[in-house]
Specification:
Length: about 190
Amino acid sequence: MWHDMLTMQVPILEKVARTVLVYALIVVLFRLAGKRGLANLNTFDFVVIFLLSNVVQNAVIGPDDSLLGGAVGAVTLVVVNAVLTRWLARDERAERILEGTATEVIRDGRVVESATRRLSLRRGQLATAVRLQNGETIDDVAVGRLEPDGHLVIVLKPEETGATRADVHRLEERLAAIEALLRDRHAGHGHASS
């Protein structure tokens, strides 16, 4: 029993190469598929991910079903992912090539139809994202960009931006100063009339 679990049926280098190649293939496929982040996955996307893991399983493990072979594949995936993540954090050009760049999907309150069609975004998804980011409608947005990670980042038009705590604090300070001036003026008039 232990012998079967710990004896690899595929050489370690082949196991590592298989894992790296399948990882690279999936990265390329997702890059070609577009900017749909995990937050934006629909039912069909989940089905593809579940089936994809099953489809590529044999390509990763080959004819090896040992515990040690699985461990080598798992460690390889984690190491390759860590190395790639660190590389992308340091090299902007590699990040742009592998992850892409932001795409403007809303400009001055209007949906950029060509971009939304290419990205398979529905108007309802945009409207929901706007509401989640304190806008009321797409008309309130100065610029909306879909980032490479799939998140929609919006900048509201200045007139649609809500007050911040700092804004409220400044108004409170100004009101207090006006009240103090009025009190002083009222007190000054009280003495003058006596």
